[in-house]
């Protein structure tokens, strides 16, 4: 393990796959990486079939040699636990490891992530192999940390709808509810005679004639999330014991929503994530923005979508653990995989604009990353990802991203805190419930949440994204865009924060549902009614060709997708609906420091948030399209995400570029 | 059973679910319902798991008490046979009850309608449970009638493609055809060597490499329809014996087309249906009308789509049976479930416009309904339909629909006959065959049929929708928009009606196919050729970007989707095609009182029908968009379905409103 | 067998199904066909269940009689091997014959092509039945030739994903690779730990969590193609022995791409194909051209799409075999099925324009067809294709196509060679690999290939489409639009042709991949780098809303879908990119006679090809939209595919018409 003093600025790395190239390349690549200024290398991510070519027969020699090659050049190594790709000999011997999809079809071998988290036999092999790896390399001086598995949940792999998961679900329910009557009550199974008389009768929610019971879906999501957490915990315990002083992390995936990331992040030293801005745009462009936004940001990605993930994953692990080199600080998150050229998995995979790799790296730093690791060192010449770029091309010549990394000055990126005075609340259970019953097809939990986030970013605000039950007293303003599931304890916590001086903003559908997935017998927003000073009156689901006018201090705006109105019970109306079924009813309300926004309208959200921030004494800087500010460690990163030069605030920003300003 | 004299006007009711709320609410709700002016309550629709929590262990106490609560307030009760939702204990004991979908996947427990109509074991439980209910409540004084099951066929549940249905189909065929050679001939199985040598070789039509044999599909539709009819008949026989004097009905679903409703309606006292105008619009907006129509009627539904269902279901049962309170008259149909706020099952679920609940209720009356029963009393706080509204909100406060019901004067709606002089012919076998081979993807049986219906309604015409084999002599004009299957007997019946003075109008593809699903060896329209005085010459399937000009007395119009031409054999051409492949050929023909329309064009259909009606002495009133007239019991309901005030014919109609005029 | 001298011009035929009509029609139909000027009739295509109603019980009498009916009128008969539709008694006795789809579902009986080519039991029945047919009719004087099966691969039936194919694949791999390590290396299985330790572990590529390994897919395509070839070879061997002097062919399907047609065509005397121009347009309209092109050619089909198939299938069999009447010449290909009215299998099935049937026939001749056989004689009155037209209507009256055939002068179409000096290279392995990893969703192998073909046709060029490994020395210009898989031997062959004076043009992605489906370790275009004088620098996948400017001699054009750039290593840049990520990089390069086009742009392709052709001394004739020239046997067919009259080059062409000019 390296004992070099931790540098005070952003460090770089890359993902490398020595098993994909001839052995004679290893030392060469390590030297080239060092020369490029990289400090870290992540390896062995999918190497199970090479480490254990047959059951119980380990082949360590090649990995020993590869690690030595990196070590010899002073690179610090991150190892993986190998479990994302169980090999053929294991799958064919134990086909019950394979997961099933929502239609009950077995998900076949021949790709990756083809396992059921609940499989006891897979769990056993996961522990066995993790132990073997940890024993072999846990104390190797080059090894500074571990990545568990790879991208949990990616490709919809959290939930299996057959086999091991189907078998384990009833027992999980029995543990949760004790007696089946409590399950029936929690799920409201009386509704369509869905009452069970024994836990063993319950199956995964799938293939029903019409809608699934949302409470059934919600509990299945909880169950599956627990399996991921348990699966990783078993690896964590082994690694903690056998590889002291090394950090342990996981590389989470863009907007992945299959499991509760807060639950799975427990025990990690910090979170990392895999940042692919261009593929992300194709899949997660803000709903309703359509082709125009996808085109404008086709070669850079959308700044707020990327920043959201940075802020989200930075907030997963609140307590500092082991730092980026194992023992020591700082403990900031990483980007474990950073796109550095075109990807291969979207319908269209354009080249990044010149400057985008530097811009992404700078943004990652400004949102808290202490390490950015590029995916991948050399483009793969084989199999699924031959069309995916790397820092080197197939022929080992430096690709466009390489040149950008080469000319990037890392010392302008000192590590340090992100000075956020605004928190945005997030909760996976709310996400599951919201998306199970959208009621308005053009909205989703992410759409609504990102709309609030983007409004804040457009005002130049730094944001912490934290769990809905996190401590809030450090913030001036707390925004709850779509926390639809609010148990009484959560409502009490928020009320206390408000009493303590925090300004709270709630979006539509806040506290719509009970923890069981039902609605409050006393109406919405249930236990939050007093704090908000309102009761839900109407909710209107607007098809894309409909809108609803909202009138208020700054004139009229149009709501799209969703509009809900309130009966005032202590709050006053800031905005009201005019025309349509909601004519004259309250659209935005305020009781003291608590503001409730019932209409979905980016324009309205921006106006209300600007007002709230001003009242809370948080300075705002309205920004033009494509310009963004991010602050860290006493510096401000001014970013131009457009393909044109921009004059802003006396600054000249080239196309796709940034400036670092000292405060 | 109540012996109160039948009131002479529309009565109201609601659907309530006492098992969904605490017992202490029952008496309160009953009292509130009575105060609101409701007369009926439908209960126990999905209550199997509460009536029989375990196999053979009945719990009657709660339902006894609930019925007493309603009875105590003078409400009349409609009970259900419970079979729409077999509970978990039954399904897990007899998984063979579950149906299979078109891909052969078992349709799982956890929702509703998860049974195969052909399952012998389910049939047995259906009879057993119906008998138990009938014995318990069949003579209860509060109980005035029964609803069998719920919404047969909804969610594509008529046809099961495995298990019990797959097992029963060969025997059904043997019964129909006697020897397999007759089956082969009827289906034209020689076509692709599809000939069977034994009935046992025949399976449900599914998962073939390419197109299915339409005759195979047609017979499977007939088979499945028969299962529904048989299933219900078993319940009917028990209820007739054990619950004398009570009406028996079924609540049919919007445009449901899985089974032959005329067949299934046999033995019922009258039909009811479930009227959800806004969800209906999203799913059944007139083809080609696109977003513009969906937007215009987003908050009211489309008047003609709703009216079509009213007229369709009113016509299902021709002979009067027991009336709405059991013994006695009138015997008109009901709306068993009437939307009274937003629904939850469309992609978008907007709020109804102010006034829509009253307008829907008035329209229901004018199209023959004697009772309108709102769905549901209180919004569900649990499970699949928590986002669906009721007359009361989740928190028991009155919702928007409640207020409209409260202020509605029912006495302006006397019961009595709908004075239709025009009949529109309908036939489920034609529908099955048409839709199996559309040939032009933008048309369907419903699209074509509703186009003719809507043209009539735009002319202010009251319409009876009747079976293609119904007696026609009472009508001045009979329209057969899409009766593609015309056996010789049917042709003879129509010819006789024409001889008797009825004016007949046929749309394209009329009599295209034989009862077996083949085409006539002698060409189309087969046995109807003489009556129409034409032979089919060409049929042209027009992609949406193509049209075909039609020229006639009133100038030129454009046909879309479909254009067929005729060789004249006794008829004359009223309109001809000009340009394109059909240039100069007959598009609309007339022989005596028989008119044939070959081109699909709402404009053309309207013009030709107006001419036919005028000649037949049926007065027409051309109406502007969104204005409709409906007559009943000597009164005329003038309706404004637009969101704007309308001046029409000297009347001022507010947005979404109606007037009742005495004739 | 007829011994009449082969006429020197195009002959006509039709597809007839005597088993579909009463016996008394056979002689009548034969006489009518003769009177219409038809020479051939193809029969018994789907007649297995009539020839062998039960296992081993043959019924020859009816077919004997039908053949005599045609023979008696001087018609020459083409017989089929019956295997496209195994009957029910065989399938129910041996359900393992049924294929499985990509989701693992058994493809059910009840349609056609429901068999797995790898099924040993089906192979046995195929041989048995072919032998029985050959013994019975192999030397019949009326029989001039055989069609094997029908439309191999149609409806995605080449590849089965279960049963017999799944069982045979491992053995095929063992045969190909010998030891499993070589398989792992060839597929790059180390990539995601997909390495096998035994061939028996390998399954068809299906249902994986995310992307399939393209090498796995490529080998499965090769395996499945081999099954088709083997299946047919067994029939060929029997027919060759038992039916001497008769030709053997297969009727290939439009753009079918499931198997390697060059492999399957081996041993055939010539290829035939089934030409349905209107259905073809709906399914294969040039990508990106959208509704506008589909509308313009809705009633004629697109001339280049049709011509492409003519040229493709003409080139399948290079060596002359037995001619169109068995023994003798000429040996040109046929159109075995020619649309002569509307089809029934597209979403929309418009009527052909007046003149289209003649135009299609003339075009077929000009592109090398010696016989055009219309599908079908009489429209079917039963089963799947009742909406499909024939020369006769359902009622036996002559339909529109009949009239066009009646007035067509066949003597203006002498047989003889197509004088192509330009070859377009084609390769199914490249197609499989390209389409498995499109990287840009709007492009495909066919799209890119047809773009080059269409550019040539717009310049009035006659084209041979030949296999990528065919002899090239006879051509002035060779175009390789999308040969993405270029082994070293192929590269050497092309280099040698270039040395010999051939001008070579390569499109984007040429030689991108190794024969195993990987990329070259040394970069693209691998072994072709020297010949092209370039190395691949960047490739850009452009979403439909993006374009990339290309600048060159003729000004600027916009690339869509794809843009790749090159590092010059001996070549010079003809066009360069301007703006965007590729700014200043080479877009089109030339080294000597070799031109490489990196940008996808029909306009650019046309300009570059025009230049190359001019330099190579091949005369070009730029043609307006919808006008085409095709040359054969010393004559030129001038075609107008538009619905309007056209003045061109001093000629007056009526709408949808042609002229034959002597050179
Ligand atoms: Zn990754
Ligand atoms: Zn209902
Ligand atoms: Zn065919």
Automatic annotation (TrEMBL), chains A, B, C:
Keyword annotations: Glycosidase, Hydrolase, Metal-binding, Zinc
Location of the Beta-galactosidase trimerisation domain: 420-618
InterPro entries the UniProt entry points to: Beta_galactosidase_Trimer, Class_I_gatase-like, GH, Glyco_hydro_42, Glyco_hydro_42_N
Membrane-spanning intervals of the chain: none
Gene Ontology MF annotations: beta-galactosidase activity; metal ion binding
GO CC term, one of those recorded: beta-galactosidase complex
Top-rank EC class of the record's enzyme: hydrolase
Active site: 151 (proton donor), 337 (nucleophile)
Pfam families: Glyco_hydro_42, Glyco_hydro_42M
A biological process term (GO) from this entry: carbohydrate metabolic process
EC number: 3.2.1.23
Hydrolase in keyword set: yes
Keyword field contains Zinc: yes
Reactions catalysed according to its record: Hydrolysis of terminal non-reducing beta-D-galactose residues in beta-D-galactosides
Residue ranges constituting the Glycoside hydrolase family 42 N-terminal domain according to the UniProt record: 17-409
CDD domains (UniProt xref): A4_beta-galactosidase_middle_domain (cd03143)
Binding-site list for substrate: 112, 150, 345
The family this protein is said to belong to: Belongs to the glycosyl hydrolase 42 family.
The protein, known as: Beta-galactosidase
């Amino acid at each position: 393990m390296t004992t070099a003093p931790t540098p005070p600025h952003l460090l770089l790395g890359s993902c490398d796959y020595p098993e994909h190239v001839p052995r004679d390349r290893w030392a060469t690549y390590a030297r080239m990486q060092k020369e490029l200024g990289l400090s870290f290398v992540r390896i062995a991510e999918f190497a199970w079939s090479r480490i254990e070519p047959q059951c119980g027969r380990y082949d360590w020699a090649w990995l020993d040699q590869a690690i030595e090659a990196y070590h010899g050049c002073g690179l610090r190594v991150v190892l993986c636990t190998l479990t994302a790709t169980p090999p053929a000999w294991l799958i064919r011997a134990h086909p019950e490891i394979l997961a099933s999809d929502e239609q009950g079809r077995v998900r076949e071998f021949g790709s990756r992530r083809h396992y059921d988290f609940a499989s006891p036999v897979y769990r056993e092999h996961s522990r066995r192999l993790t132990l073997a790896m940890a024993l072999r390399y846990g104390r190797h001086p080059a090894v500074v940390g571990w990545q568990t598995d790879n991208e949990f949940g990616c490709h919809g792999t959290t939930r299996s709808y057959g086999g091991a998961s189907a078998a384990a679900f009833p027992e999980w329910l029995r543990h949760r509810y004790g007696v089946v009557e409590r399950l029936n009550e929690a799920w409201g199974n009386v509704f369509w005679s869905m009452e069970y008389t024994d836990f063993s009768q319950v199956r995964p929610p799938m293939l029903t004639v019409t809608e699934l019971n949302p409470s059934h879906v919600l509990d299945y999501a909880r169950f599956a999330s627990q399996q991921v957490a348990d699966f990783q915990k078993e690896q964590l315990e082994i690694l903690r014991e056998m590889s002291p002083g090394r950090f342990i992390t996981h590389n989470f995936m863009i907007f992945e929503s299959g499991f509760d990331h807060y639950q799975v992040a427990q025990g990690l030293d910090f979170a990392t994530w895999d940042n692919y801005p261009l593929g992300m745009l194709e899949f997660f462009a803000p709903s309703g923005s359509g082709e125009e936004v996808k085109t404008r940001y086709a070669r850079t990605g959308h700044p707020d979508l990327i920043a959201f993930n940075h802020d989200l994953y930075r907030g997963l692990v609140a307590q500092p653990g082991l730092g980026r080199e194992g023992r020591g600080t700082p403990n900031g998150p990483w980007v474990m995989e950073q796109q550095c050229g075109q990807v291969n998995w979207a319908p269209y995979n354009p080249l990044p604009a010149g400057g985008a790799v530097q811009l992404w790296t700078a943004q990652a730093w400004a949102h808290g990353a202490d390490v950015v690791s590029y995916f991948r060192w050399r483009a793969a010449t084989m199999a699924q990802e031959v069309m995916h770029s790397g820092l080197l091309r197939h022929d080992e010549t430096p690709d466009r991203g390489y040149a950008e990394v080469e000319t990037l000055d890392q010392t302008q990126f000192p590590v340090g805190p992100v000075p956020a005075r605004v928190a945005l609340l997030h909760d996976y259970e709310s996400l599951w419930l919201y998306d199970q019953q959208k009621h308005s097809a053009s909205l989703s939990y992410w759409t609504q949440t990102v709309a609030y986030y983007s409004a804040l970013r457009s005002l130049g605000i730094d944001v912490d994204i934290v769990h809905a039950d996190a401590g809030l007293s450090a913030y001036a303003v707390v925004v709850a865009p779509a926390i639809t599931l609010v148990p009484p304890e959560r409502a009490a916590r928020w009320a206390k924060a408000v009493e303590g001086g925090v300004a709270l903003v709630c979006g539509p559908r806040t506290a719509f549902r009970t923890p069981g997935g039902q609605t409050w017998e006393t109406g919405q927003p249930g236990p939050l009614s007093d704090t908000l000073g309102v009761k839900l009156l109407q909710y209107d689901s607007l098809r894309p060709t409909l809108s609803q006018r909202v009138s208020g201090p700054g004139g009229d705006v149009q709501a799209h997708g969703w509009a809900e109105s309130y009966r005032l019970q202590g709050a006053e109306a800031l905005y009201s609906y005019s025309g349509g079924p909601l004519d004259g009813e309250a659209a935005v309300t305020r009781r003291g420091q608590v503001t409730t926004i019932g209409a979905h309208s980016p324009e309205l959200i921006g106006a209300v948030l600007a007002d709230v921030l001003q009242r809370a004494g948080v300075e705002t800087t309205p920004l033009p399209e494509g310009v963004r500010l991010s602050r860290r460690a006493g510096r401000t990163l001014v970013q131009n995400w457009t393909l044109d030069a921009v004059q802003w605030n006396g600054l000249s920003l080239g196309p796709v570029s940034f400036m670092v300003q000292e405060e």
